[in-house]
Amino acid sequence: MTIEYAELKSMPLKTGSSYVRPVQDFAERVNLSDPATTVMTDLNKVSVVSVRAKTSMDRANAKMIRYGVRMLLVLDDNEQVAGLLTATDVLGEKPMHFLQNMGGTHADIMVRDIMSTQRELQVLKLEDVQKSKVGSIVASLKKANRQHALVVAEGADGRQTVCGLFSITQIARLLGAQVQSFELARTFAEIEAVIACNNLTCPSPK
Predict the structure, then answer these.
(1) Is 69 exposed, middle or buried (0-12, 13-18, 19+ CB in 10 A)?
(2) 145: domain range?
(3) Residue 205: its pLDDT value, please?
(4) Tens of pLDDT along 35-76?
(5) Which of 46, 119, 136, 179 can pair with 132 through a Cys bridge, CB separation 3.0 to 4.6 Å?
(6) Residue 176 and residue 156: Cα distance in Å, rounded?
(7) 185 Cβ contact partners less than 8 Å away, ≥ 6 residues apart
(8) Under 8 Å CB-to-CB from 164, ≥6 apart: which residues?
(9) Is residue 16 domain-resident?
(10) φ and ψ at 38, to 5 degrees?
(11) Are 111 and 55 within 8 A, CB to CB?
């Protein structure tokens, strides 16, 4: 016997319609002794914002602003990780150094010209992250003098898949630091001030 199924009623898509974006909820406040995963952006829950290596720097910067992020994962033509582009790369000295060496204008600078390449990137293993604390992530970022760290899962064949990331700016905010700059030294100083206040009796703000 053939079963007949009723069709669903359709309607026009309204102008100005949006779409659901994945969101990861973080705790309002964390401590250095909390599990590292509480401050990790889980790419199984949140889509990472990416860009092609051949994209212009200005377009990549506009994409960061549009999505409210300070880091873009750079992909090659095979959808594999080619590098990492941060707001510091765009707003720092790299563009000027490139123009001094190669000539041209800002409009000529591509993402590949100022990004950190795949060969330059150090990553954290997910299994290590799952056993560590927030303080260890802060220490790792400080030692590497980087604002971001990628987390990878390794398959049985040794192939790596980027599955998470850490941002020192986000960690600082979750720790309660008043971060208002891209400057790494200032960010770490803010974190250390919060740690000092946790260990001592700090004066109440006036």
Answers:
(1) middle
(2) 36-197
(3) 46
(4) 999 999 999 999 889 999 999 999 999 999 998 888 999 999
(5) 136
(6) 39
(7) none
(8) 40, 41, 42, 43, 126, 129, 150, 151
(9) no
(10) -70, -15
(11) yes
Owner of token pair 């889980």: 42
Amino acid present at 16:
G
| β partners of residue 51 | 74
Contacts of 47 (CB under 8 A, 6+ apart): 21, 22
Does any domain span residue 188?
yes
What residue type is assigned to position 180 of the chain?
Q
The C-alpha atoms of residue 206 and residue 24 are separated, in whole angstroms, by 34
Give 182's contacts (C-beta < 8 A, 6+ positions apart).
70, 87, 88, 91, 92, 147, 169
Please indicate, yes or no, if residue 14 is contained in any of the structural domains.
no
Which residue in the block uniquely carries the two structure tokens 């409210």?
68
